[in-house]
Amino acid sequence: MPVEPYLSIERLRKQFGDFAALKDVSLDVMSGEFVCFLGPSGCGKTTLLRAIAGLDLQTAGRIVQGGRDISNLPASQRDFGIVFQSYALFPNLNVASNVGYGLVSRRLPRAQTSARVTELLKLVGLPEAAAKYPAQLSGGQQQRVALARALALSPGLLLLDEPLSALDARVRAYLRLEIRRLHQRLGVTTIMVTHDQEEALTMADRIVVMNEGVIEQIGTPLEVYRHPASAFVADFVGTTNFLAAQVVGDCLVRFGGLNLHCEFESGPQPGQQITLAIRPEDLVVRNVSAGAANTAEVKVTHIEFLGSFCRVSLGLGEQPAALLADFSINVVRDLAISQGQTLLISLPPDRIRVFPGAPQLP
């Protein structure tokens, strides 16, 4: 039997005057999934999250959660917990009172509330912080308190609105791992809004890439990274080389002075302008044979040390920075790669993505 989605969004639209923030967005989220809405500022991801929460009602469309149509219900009648970027803790209440605020509002017995607060603080790794006030906690600790508060009433849906963006890099990396572990432990259906591709790739079961009020692609992190559905997705998720090329034959294109074999379905016709996309880490420099298909002689014009790898700018013909390549430290050391050196590289056909039209990206 087919499994029904826990959350179903059907042709959702949201207008702010003449501006369409969401344009017929449809999406299914399965029970227990961790889904990330990913995209640049103004793409509609936060508007979609707020519509799900009932904080900004949609102009048109339906939202069904757990078999119940919640499209026009106020936020107070929806089953969710939410964590904001700004923590939104009550500064005059201690940690225990912040976490238990929703429980007290539900008039639960004091002993039950106290036990639940203790359980949640232990769950988020802050069992000793109950008597402290938000001002006495670090940003990462405050965000964990906000997460515990959102989970207090055991919601069916957990909404995270860029919860890590206000934290420094080290704390952010730690908390994204902790949130993922917590999700795996509790199994609560979770939706997170982020503009950080690394967060989405490391935390999500599926990523929803959004742009200008529409969904560009939905897929697992590997699918979105390895098989982007559009040039926008390829550019926004990860680093990509975009090359202006022209179709010259069946699965054969010309870039600069090179003829490159690509794997693409029928569609592009000879003479048509297309865009090639290849990730910097997919350029091959070891064991490349001269004269083999998709090989090119390039010149190293710049080397940027990035810890575990080097990002190398490669000149091709009269283009001083035609390609970016990510070479591991071992490759750089073993081949003694240095600025000004000439290299023979390969562009594997199965790693080249083909998009219609000339590159439109900056």
Give the key terms.
five-stranded antiparallel β-sheet, six-stranded mixed β-sheet, 19 strands, 362 residues
Structure description:
The chain has 362 residues and is of the alpha+beta class. The chain has helices spanning 45-53, 95-99, 101-105, 110-123, 139-151, 169-186, 197-203, 221-226, 231-236, 329-334, and strands at residues 7-16, 19-29, 34-38, 60-65, 68-69, 81-83, 157-161, 189-194, 206-211, 214-219, 241-249, 252-255, 258-261, 273-278, 295-305, 309-316, 319-328, 342-346, 353-356. Strands 6-7-8-3-9-10 form a six-stranded mixed sheet, with helices on both faces. Strands 13-12-11-14-19 form a five-stranded antiparallel sheet, with no helix packed on it. A hairpin with a 2-residue loop joins strand 11 and strand 12. Helix 4 packs across helix 5 (139-151). The longest helix is centred in the middle third of the chain and has 18 residues, at 169-186. It is elongated and about 80 Å long. The two termini are 47 Å apart.
Mind sketching the topology for me?
Blueprint: E1 7-16, E2 19-29, E3 34-38, H1 45-53, E4 60-65, E5 68-69, E6 81-83, H2 95-99, H3 101-105, H4 110-123, H5 139-151, E7 157-161, H6 169-186, E8 189-194, H7 197-203, E9 206-211, E10 214-219, H8 221-226, H9 231-236, E11 241-249, E12 252-255, E13 258-261, E14 273-278, E15 295-305, E16 309-316, E17 319-328, H10 329-334, E18 342-346, E19 353-356
Parallel strand pairs: 3-8, 3-9, 6-7, 7-8
Antiparallel strand pairs: 1-2, 1-4, 4-5, 9-10, 11-12, 11-14, 12-13, 14-19, 15-16, 15-18, 16-17
